[in-house]
Each structure stands twice: as structure tokens, then as C-alpha cells.
Amino acid sequence: MTVVSRLLAAFLLLAAGWAGAQGLPPEIEAALARAKVPSDALSVLVVEADGRAAPRLSHRAAVPVNPASVAKLVTTYAALDLLGPAFSWTTPVYVDGTVQGGTLSGNLYLQGQGDPKLVVERLWLLLRRIQGLGIRQIQGDIVLDRSAFETIQQDPGAFDGEPLRPYNASPDALLLNFKSVVMTFVPDRAGRALVQYDPPLAGVQTAATVPLAAGDCGDWRSGLKADFSDPGRIRFAGAYPASCGERAWPVAYADPGTYAARAVAGLWQEMGGKLSGQVREGRVPAGLKPAFSVQSPALAEVVRDINKFSNNVMAQQLFLTLSLQQKGVGTQQGSREILRSWWRERVGGEPPAMDNGSGLSRDERISAQQLARMLQLAWASPLMPELMSSLPVAGTDGTLRRLRGRSAGQAHLKSGSLRDVSAVAGYVHAASGRRYVLVAIANHPNAAAARPAIDALVDWVARDQ
User: Fold this and answer.
1) HSE-CB of 328 using CA atoms within 13 angstroms
2) For 419-441, what is the mean pLDDT?
3) Which overall architecture, per CATH, does domain 3-86+299-462 show?
4) Which of 137, 179, 196, 337 could serve as 256's disulfide partner, Cβ 3.0–4.6 Å?
5) Under CATH, which architecture does the 89-296 domain have?
6) Where do the H-state alpha helices sit in 345-392?
7) How many alpha carbons lie under 13 Å from residue 143 in its C-beta half-sphere?
């Protein structure tokens, strides 16, 4: 019998008891009371990772709840299993025409294949390789083929009221730099801060400098009084504190639909390239072979970015990639079907309700029992190192770098939060030497206030003797 088979057998023996309610530890009950969150708003399961013993704590473990960003655990582990940790995305580049004297007479095509990490540095390298083909001027168009994914429209501020955050961008087969611009402010001796914009966006007016101000750095972004509402202009009505030194501010572009075209045109021009036509959307002609392709980092590295920093758009790119690889086009429905089939085959039982794979959804549902079962299977899998190393380390890095207490350095946990949801899930190394799977999810209008209770629960597990 394999390790996974033994784990499944142990799970089946324990499953009946998992759904039962146990009393929460007194310190957790007290923390929930202070937060004005009832105990029946919290679902908890604490069980040894190897599945050899009964759960240490089970409270409402079988109740399906909204997981927020801990849903990324399902997406990333399924992708590691289905695609392999060495999987990478390619972005083919096609030249349709003749090149003579540094001029391409024809069109250039960039075909998006879902790369979630085609950031500005890698876009620059892509364009540099085009110039390496001897192309400095294009007498034609640069055509962006984004047909590998279905078009998904979403309100970037719908869930957390932060539409300017790059992680809230919508997925895109040709996702460039998270559809964001990074502004770097550098004070000089002339009483001003120089402002650099990466990537430069064609057709967008920008301020080259902003005045300096005295005082503490503090909330320096608010002090700039930035106005990003006009897609054709970025303005600052305030000042930048000299005490801040050099700082960078990434902001999602106000008109994401035109971002890719502006970014490619602006960077091509800054690199000395010339374009007689326009940057536009279109399809690669049938039968045309790529001149070259650029390759993304490996999936194991991408999963680390997704989980450590809870990057929503990268998670959605990965989710859509599941159906792109199996069905030829990335769709949410196709990826949902693939994930359900994978769950029944690899995890067993009824699959969770997944929406877009990022947790940025009001429709996703999973129970603590389901998620713990998957984490136990991941623990017994050869993929365990890749998944576990992708999780934030309590008190050390990622979204849990500020977590303090007994669990600091002892827990690898994915956190999640939405309005009405607060959650953690992952692995805790206890003082006893045992490794526990911990899942704790609060669904309540006051869920944000339950975070101290969840942190106290993590410490309670870590103290196990």
C-alpha cells in the first residue's frame, strides 16, 4: 500500500469524527468574544499532517464556507500536480514580412499564452530580441494576439475597494506587467523628486518631477494627491517628502483594455524602435511559424509568487492555463470542470465549488475538512516541497511577515481575507515535533476582527507538547 493510499484509508476512518463539534480552546473563545464574532462563524480543523491520529481539534469542519485567498492552495497544488513544477509558459513572436536594412516590411505578432509573469523587464528582453533579428523599424503593425483566454471583464475594486492595486487586474492571455505602471520617485538637490515610469505608456502625459516637502515620510502616497482617473494623463497636485528617499509606487492603469498596446508602443519607442503603423489586437495568420519564443519562469517559482504574496491575477492566469493546456483555450468553465475531475480522482469525495481559482469570489466554497484532506495528501506527495515552500512563513515573509507569537518561524500558512472572510490554512510545526495541518476560516460580517483569534489559534497549535 502506498503512502497516499494509507493516508486515504486513515482519512476515511477519521472522517466521521471530523464533522463533529469540539469545544474551542478557552483563549480562542475569549478572543472571538472580544471581536464580537460567534463561535459558530468559525470553522476549524487541526490534524496531524501524516493522518495517523484523530484530529486534535475539529469545529464545524464539514461546513462549506467562503475561503477567500486560501482557495489558492487548491489552484496551485492542482496545477503542480497536473502541469508539473517545471512547466513554463511560452510567448511566441512572429515576423510576417521581409527584413532589409533594419526595416520589417510587414507585421509583427506577439501571441499571448497566459504567462503570468511577463513583467516589464521581460517585455524589454522580448523587444530586445526582436531588435536582435535586425528589426529597428516596422513598416506595418505590431499585432497582439490575446485569443488563448476568453475575455473576462471584472470590476477591479469590487472586493476590497482597491482598483489601483495591480493584483486586482483581470486575467489576460497577454498579461503585461499586471497592467500596471511603476512610478519611482527620486529626490534631487534641486528641491524636487524625479519621477520615472515603467513601462512608458504611449499617448499618456506624465509629470517628470514633483516638488519636495519637509516632514516625515508617513503616508507619502496620499501627500502626492495623485489623479489617475484620466487614462491620457497622470497628475500630482501634492508633494513628495524628501525624507522618504527613493520609493516606488505600482498602480494599475485606469484603462486596462488599452494597456498592452500602450506599453508595447511606449517601450518600443523608448528603445529606439520606429513603427509606421499601430499596435492593435488581432490573430496570428494560420501557418505562420514563430521567429522565436520567450519562456516564463518555472511553475514552482510562479506558485511561490502566488501564495507568498496572494497575487490574485497570477492565480487566475494559472487557473485558466489548466483548460488552455487540455482544451486549447482558457475558460473559467473549462478550468472548473478540469479541477472537479482532478479532485475526484486525486483527492476523492465531492469537490469544492471553485469560481476563478484566486479566492476573489463570493461563490467559491470549501470546507475545512476538504481543504485539510488535500493538504494531507500534498504532505505525502513528492510535490510537498514545492507547495510548502510557496507558503508565507509566519513572522518572516509574504502576507504573514507581521505575525508574531509562538508560531513565528514555525508555521507555513496561506492567509485569506475578503469583506466578511478571514482565514488561514497550511502547516504548523509544533513544540512536540509533530507537524499539523491547520485550517481556520471565519465567515461573518465582523470577520476582520476575528484575525487575533485565528492568530491565537495558530499559537495554540504551535505550543502543542
Assistant:
1) 0
2) 96
3) 3-Layer(aba) Sandwich (3.40)
4) 179
5) 3-Layer(bba) Sandwich (3.50)
6) 368-379, 384-389
7) 16
